[in-house]
Write a structure and sequence with these properties.
Oligomer: single chain
CATH architecture: Sandwich
Number of domains: 1
CATH class: Mainly Beta
Number of helices: 1
Order of helices and strands: HEEEEEEEEE
Shape: globular
Mean pLDDT: 91
Structural class: mainly beta
Number of strands: 9
Low-confidence stretches: 1-7
Helix content: 10-25%
CATH topology: Jelly Rolls
Strand content: over 45%
Largest sheet: 6 strands, antiparallel
Length: 130
């Protein structure tokens, strides 16, 4: 008899997918920062991270999850809650958002992960610049 094998995702795997999203940006000259954010969130709960961005730099944010069937959404806003991203791209386990801030200041990265199940969703958010 064969038994069922349980497979558990980890936050590290979510970071791996965020780094996979970063690959085409690195090939275009982006420098990936070593620091990143991660955790577990209830499906559909919006999270917000504030971060200092500098005019003259172009930034990319990469959101990854290691869980199947998760829909990702991410936007970047200025201090007046106006969206500032240039473009965004999504894949099965990650998404990216590119930003060219119009001025130096504190910006909000707002993201949400929706799962078809009620389990918590593991995530990692990394970024880079050029």
């Amino acid at each position: 008899m064969f038994g069922a094998t349980l497979v558990y995702a980890t936050v590290d795997e979510s970071h791996d997918f965020a780094m996979e999203a970063a690959t085409p940006f690195v090939e275009k000259g982006f420098i990936v920062r070593e620091d990143y954010w991660n955790g577990e969130v209830k499906s559909g709960q919006k999270l917000q991270i504030t971060h200092q961005l500098f005019k003259g730099n172009e930034y990319a944010f990469w959101l990854g999850t290691s869980q199947e069937g998760v829909t990702l959404d991410m936007k970047v806003y200025d201090e007046k809650n106006q969206p500032v991203q240039i473009d965004s791209k999504s894949d099965k386990f990650f998404m990216s958002v590119r930003v060219n801030p119009p001025k130096t200041g504190t910006y909000k990265i707002v993201f949400e992960l929706k799962s078809k199940t009620d389990v918590g969703v593991l995530w990692a958010l990394a970024y880079g610049y050029r």
